[in-house]
Amino acid sequence: MRKLAALIKHPLRELQSDVDEAVSPERYTMLRRKIIALIVAASLIPLSVMAVLNYYEHQNAMTKEIQNPLRVLVNKTKNSFELFLAERTSTVSLIASAYSYGELADENKLARIFTVMKKEFDGFVDLGLIDAHGNQINYVGPYALKGKNYAEQRWFQEVRLKGKYVSDVFMGYRKFPHVIIAVQHMTEDGRVWILRATLDTRQFERIIASMSLEPDADAFLVNTQGLMQTSSNNYGKVLEKLSFPLPPQTYEPTVLQMIDPLGRDVFLSYAYFPEADFVLMAVKPKASVLKTWYTVRGDLLFIFAVGVALVLLAAVGVTDALIRRMKEAEDRRELALREVEHSQKLSSIGRLAAGVAHEVNNPLAIINEKAGLMKDILSLQGEFPSKDKILAQVESILRAVDRCRGITHRMLGFARRMDVTNEALDLGELIAETASFLSNEAMHRKVDVRLDIDPLLPRIVSDRSQLQQVFLNLFNNALAAVPDGGVIEALARPESDGVCVTVKDNGCGMSDETLKHIFEPFFTTKKGKGTGLGLSITYGIVKRLGGEIAVESTTGVGTTLTITLPIGQREALA
Amino acid sequence: MNTNDWKILLVDDEHEFITTLAERLELRGINARVVFDGESALLAVAEDEPHVMILDVLMPGIKGLEVLERVKRTNPNVQVLLLTGHGSTRDGIEGMRLGAFDYMMKPLNIDTLIEKMESAIDYASKAAKLGQ
Q1: Would you say A544 and A343 are in contact if contact means Cβ atoms under 8 Å apart?
Q2: Is A267 strand, coil or helix?
Q3: What is the pLDDT averaged over residues A341-348?
Q4: Cβ of B69 under 8 Å from any chain A Cβ?
Q5: For residue B52, which phi and psi values (nearest 5 degrees)?
Q6: Closest-CA distance of chain A to residue B122, Å
Q7: List of chain B residues whose C-beta atoms are within 8 Å of the C-beta of residue A469
Q8: Could you say which of B23, B86, B110 has the minimum Cβ distance to residue A358?
Q9: Chain B residues near residue A373 by CB distance under 8 angstroms
């Protein structure tokens, strides 16, 4: 029991650890296999046990149901045989008691008696009077047996010993299978004589025929030495040896299962006769009697197979759905983690940028003013050697300061993108306006900037200046990526509860490795020309405005950036 | 009004920056008084009401926005141009709400500064005329 519990606990614990660690496709495959195996085992073991128990229970019930009628039939037929023999024995006994030796020795009288016997009871063939020495004194019947001596025959000795005797089937002088019933009578004066009647065994065949067995079934009578007393379809003719051993002796009808000499699996029902030396046997092939059971067994097997198939299907279906959910949850968790990580990175960078910009701006202002003053003073001075050269140097310092100012202002801009000012705006108009900022460069480089704004594009509630920054970044990147004469397409389409804007270029594209880092701050592919903040700022703005941004790119083919934005507060649109 | 007649007060704790700026203005014929903290700025305004006060937002002691608020209360005709060393527009917008004429971010472009000072003086004179 403890082992079973351990077996159950073990896969569950393994499953749990698999869930915790399930990140790679291989682990999902392993997990899937284990879950399916567990579900199948948990379902099929009880199902199989139930099916086996059901099978044997049904088989036993069916066997009993089949054996009982067979037992009853043999009992009934045995009773018929016993009644048949008892009636005829009583008749012979009555005649022996009712008539005197003299009357029975009278040929006419015996013939009259025999005629009445035959009339009242079927099966009598002849009737004879035998004296104590075995001589047949009188005889009525179809054979010339008067004067025959039976002193040496077994039946004579048996009847002398027991007083009554019913023989087995035998040929004797008559040369056909018959049975004799012999009754000994003793008069008051001590005279002994025997009345003997012969029975035709065709009566036995009739009794057996009354059992109305199926064509492949068989019933017959044998004696306790195994000699056939009636003919059998399969196990021998009259007086031949039975082709299989006799079953154990019992007077109660009994059913056995055996393989018969023909190799068939059969039920043998039999009963020994207590008053005669006979055994009644009925044989039925199992195949025919268990036809119903075989149908039931087929149905059971079919139900079991369907059950197994359903369990397998359900296990696979449920497991696949479970694994799919787990994968989705894992993906969502990973995405959320990445977003949190990215947001935290952006937030940290923003704070850092604000601090750096502020700290740098003050000394930069001093440099600016000092250089400005130098320029002012130099400008007021008359000509002197190297004046122009010094002025050029000062101008260079001022340009550098200006560049630094641009950088610190962009960094500060990155930091302050946290503030959002919403208004209802026409996104198509905003995109067109932003694209126009780049029209000079596009014209100069013969870049085709195509705008495809859906006329049904709804107005959205969002931050105008931040969205302008977003589209400016996207157009700038596209312009940097395309060669002279390239194409940039901006498409804006309504979506359910939002709008979708796609900016597509046929530029150099990006590798998968680049795509992984595209939204990270300070990541740039422009080699010294960019700050690496453009797409990071874009990402931050889009997320803060409640939108989503996605990028697809193929090296040498181009890049597509897709932004989806929500409609925003509907009351603001009213 | 001629630039020689302008009364300008420069307020910033960055000595190097503000004295150099004063010198550059002087070279352009604009006299500017320089103080380095908020308290001195309030005294200077009380002593000699300037036309324009260039006021840094972030200073030790009394902060620029507080100086602005108090000056606007005592000397509403003084036009204040705020200087901010960091990029947040929040201080600039808050300053405008408190009555600043405009705000500028460091490093300054001196020509832009002079233009804004001129605009502020124009505005103040027009406002004074309207007030009369």
Answers
A1: no
A2: strand
A3: 68
A4: no
A5: -135, 135
A6: 26
A7: none
A8: B86
A9: 20, 23-24, 27
Least confident of A102-106, A278-282, A359-363, A372-376: A359-363
The 10s digit of each residue's pLDDT in A467-504 is 877 888 888 889 888 998 999 999 999 988 889 999 99
As a CATH number, domain B3-131 is 3.40.50.2300
- Within chain A, which residue ranges are assigned CATH 3.30.565.10? 420-573
Cα angle for residues A252, A229, A195 (degrees, 5° grid): 95
Q: Where in chain A is the domain with CATH 3.30.450.20?
A: 26-289
In this complex, is the C-beta atom of B24 within 8 Å of any C-beta atom belonging to chain A?
yes
What is the band of B38 on the pLDDT scale with cuts at 50, 70, 90? very high
CA A519 – CA A339 distance, rounded (Å): 11
Q: Which two tokens stand for residue A564?
A: 């989806």
- Write down the domain spans for chain B: 3-131
Rounded to the nearest angstrom, the minimum Cα separation between B4 and chain A is 18
Contacts of A412 in chain B (CB under 8 A): 86-88
A26-289 maps to which CATH number?
3.30.450.20
Q: What is the pTM of this model?
A: 0.43
pLDDT of residue A341: 72
Residue from B106, B110, B114 whose CB has the most chain A CBs within 10 Å, to mutate: B106
Mean pLDDT for A320-331 is: 88
- Say if the Cβ atoms of A408 and B89 lie within 8 Å: no
Instruction: Return the CATH class of domain A420-573.
Output: alpha beta
Amino acid at A467: L
Residue A450, classified by CB atoms within 10 Å of its CB into exposed (0-12), middle (13-18) or buried (19+), is: exposed
